[in-house]
Each structure stands twice: as structure tokens, then as C-alpha cells.
């Protein structure tokens, strides 16, 4: 069996599980619907980044706009726009400083996380950064300095952080704040 078809079959199973989880865990129905749509986007972007090392504009840009419109319609507030700009802007700075290390697709995906999750996108981004640290350290341990030249697709880590933040973001943020007490 070809690796690509195995990845796509696994992605279909993951999408199905995430969509069901959204409708079981997230309430009201509109939040479950927006959550499920965002999960579908994250899985599609993950598969594409693994297969072709790209975060496609044809997926992420319409998803960013749809997430922003949906969230703003459900909860009129500037926080969705601010979170979109903050998450995308944070990654834009890094992409401009080190263009070889981060692509503009990652910037747009971070902006999508801001539109989709609001300020929970901070949790998503932090979790994604921490998750990407593990394979990076393994590559460095296995290949030494040459491991720095091996590229890792970053979108899957952001997607993982986004899914975790969707379901457990407030709990994680509460736990983190409690550490300072």
C-alpha cells in the first residue's frame, strides 16, 4: 500500500473522530459546527503538508475568512480580528527573520487559528511549538549539526495544538495560571 493512501485513510478516520467529538463535547450546536469545520481544515492542511510540504492557500485562506465570519457572527467582538492579527503577525515576524525556516503558509495557518480559536490560539501555538521541539531534538541527536538542515513540516504541529486547544484550551490556560499562585 502506498504511504500517501495510508495517510489519507488515517486522515479520514481522524476527521470522523474529531467531527463526532465536536458534536459530543462542544455546545451550543453552532460552536460544534465551527469546531468540526476547523478540524476538517486542520486535517486537510496536515495531510497536504506531509505530502507536498505546503499549506495550500486554496484551503487556508477561505477557511480563515469563514472562521472569522462565523465566529464574529456568533459572538460579535473585535477579539476574533485581534487574535487573527496577533497569531498571524507573530508568525510573520519569524517568517521574515528566517524565511528558510518558516513559510507563509504557516503564517496563514496561525492566522486561521486566531480566527477559529480566538485567544485560545495562544495555547494552540504554544502546544504546537512544544510538540515540534521533540522531533527537532531527535533529529539533532541523530544527525548532529546536519540535523539543522533537515526540514520538518510545521503545520501538523500547529494543527495538533489547535485541536488540543479546541477541546482543552480553557482547562490548560486555567492550569497554567494556577502555577503562579
Provide keyphrases for this structure.
181 residues, mainly alpha
Could you characterize what this model shows?
The structure is a single chain. The chain has 181 residues and is mainly alpha-helical. It has one domain (3-172). 80% of the residues lie in helices and 0% in strands. The protein is built from seven helices and no strands. Helix 2 (29-52) runs antiparallel to helix 3 (57-74). The chain starts with a helix and ends with a helix.
Radius of gyration: 16 Å
- Protein structure class: mainly alpha
Low-confidence stretches: none
- Overall pLDDT score: 93
The largest β sheet comes out as: none
The fraction of residues in strands falls at under 5%
Number of beta-strand segments: 0
The run of helices and strands is HHHHHHH
Shape estimate: globular
Distance between the termini: 53 Å
Domain tally: 1
Counting DSSP H or I runs of 4 or more residues, the number of helices is: 7
| Helix percentage range | over 70%
Topology summary:
Layout: H1 3-25, H2 29-52, H3 57-74, H4 79-97, H5 104-117, H6 121-143, H7 155-178
Short recap of the structure:
The chain has helices spanning 3-25, 29-52, 57-74, 79-97, 104-117, 121-143, 155-178.
